[in-house]
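Record type: monomer structure entry
Structure origin: computed from sequence
Chain ID: A
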Amino acid sequence: MDHKLKVFCKVAETKSFSKASEIIHLTQPAVSLQIQALEERYETKLFDRSSNTVTLTPAGEVLYKYAKEILSLYVSAEKVIGEITDLVKGSITIGACSTIGDYLLPSIITGFRKTHPKIKIHLLVGNTNRVVEMLNSGNIDLGLVAGDVAGQRIVLKKLFSDELMLIVSPQHPWAKKKEVSLSELTKESFILREAGSGTRQVIEKFLAKHGIAPRDMKISLVLGSTEAIKDAVENGLGVSIVSRWAARKEIRYGTLNLLNFKEERLVRDFSLISNKNSVSSYVVDEFLGYLKSYTFDKLLP
């Protein structure tokens, strides 16, 4: 019964049988059968399918209210039983922006799995906007993002700080410098992340603070990943700004140089996002506890 209620709630929240089927990994006919079974049980229609969107009927509104409470109780029961038995198993789906997902979480997840071998973790990586979309659509249990995030249904909590720094190739005239001014930066070919990236959002905000608009920059390339940006900089196609976490391997092997800005440090927050009204499972709580106590600086060279 709880599975049928989960399917019902997902259709109600997405207002679409096809979207719900994608999120819960069932075929659309299977989703329709679950809803049909509920409608036969209560002998009434739960959805109005007459328009382009699927909407709840008055009976459906009532069931949705109680279904959310029932599912919340299931999660609470699972949490309490897990605490009593000390048996932690299950799965977590995490969405992360590329800097966190590509350069931090693999090491963190490896450490977590050593003490929690029965927990399966699914990691989905995208830019910050994509992670927010995945959270809103119910594809992930929690998200880790950089940059500004706003939404009525989202709770945002700072996890730790990250510094973004200028990267240049070892052959660049600036390679032996320790810092450069932003006025110098406007004269160089600059490589930028794609729209929707948390890194790009922070960079543009930082430049605007110092009176520099995108039109003042000599933007030579816009690329969709930090890896592509680092490769372009290594090959002398321009300079860029990335997280110090993202460049740690290249710094260790001497294929990139890191520089500071004369004006001030460029620091942003990495944040945890979750749905405001969701009840986290015992498994999610275990991972969050591990994450919040993690010493991130030990990952730096």
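Annotation 1: The two ends are 51 Å apart (CA to CA).
Annotation 2: The chain is about 45% helix and 25% strand.
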